[in-house]
Task: inverse folding
């Protein structure tokens, strides 16, 4: 992709396992981020990978996505394997956008809400010639279950 050429297709892959509490908000946030970045209609697709959920995550995701994406179900065993299956599916969907260097793929987690400017930021980096972006999205933890983390070093 040339540094100034926008992608012809943007796909977002979201692995989920028992995320009924969060998946609808995650989909909504991604859809808002796509709209904010000026990506509409057939030039985008969202795939939720329902990795063996038993809490209705897949059905909630299907309803939240409507015609803007699909749910891929299976027992993938890990977020990485689920993500890989989602990217395989996404590349098949993006086939009309060939060459594949006109495709931008992103991923987040179902327990996260991406910021409104998330994909706009990706595309800004893309226009500057960057081919990959990595970062962190803060999970939506339940109020009293936020993990406590600490680290220490000694010399």
Result:
């Amino acid at each position: 992709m040339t540094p100034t050429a926008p992608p012809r297709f943007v796909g977002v892959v979201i692995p989920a396992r028992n995320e009924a509490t969060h998946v609808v908000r995650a989909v909504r946030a991604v859809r808002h981020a796509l709209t904010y970045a000026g990506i509409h209609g057939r030039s985008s697709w969202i795939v939720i990978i329902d990795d063996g959920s038993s809490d209705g995550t897949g059905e909630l995701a299907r309803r939240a996505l409507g015609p803007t994406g699909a749910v891929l179900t299976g027992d993938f065993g890990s977020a990485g394997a689920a993500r890989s299956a989602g990217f395989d599916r996404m590349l098949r969907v993006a086939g009309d956008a060939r060459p594949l260097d006109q495709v931008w793929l992103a991923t987040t987690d179902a327990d996260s809400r991406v910021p409104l400017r998330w994909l706009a930021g990706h595309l800004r980096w893309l226009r500057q010639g960057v081919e990959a972006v990595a970062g962190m999205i803060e999970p939506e933890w339940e109020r009293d279950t936020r993990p406590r983390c600490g680290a220490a070093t000694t010399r």
Notes: The first strand starts at residue 9 and ends at 16. Confidence is low (pLDDT under 50) at residues 148-155. The chain is about 30% helix and 15% strand. The chain has one domain: 9-127.
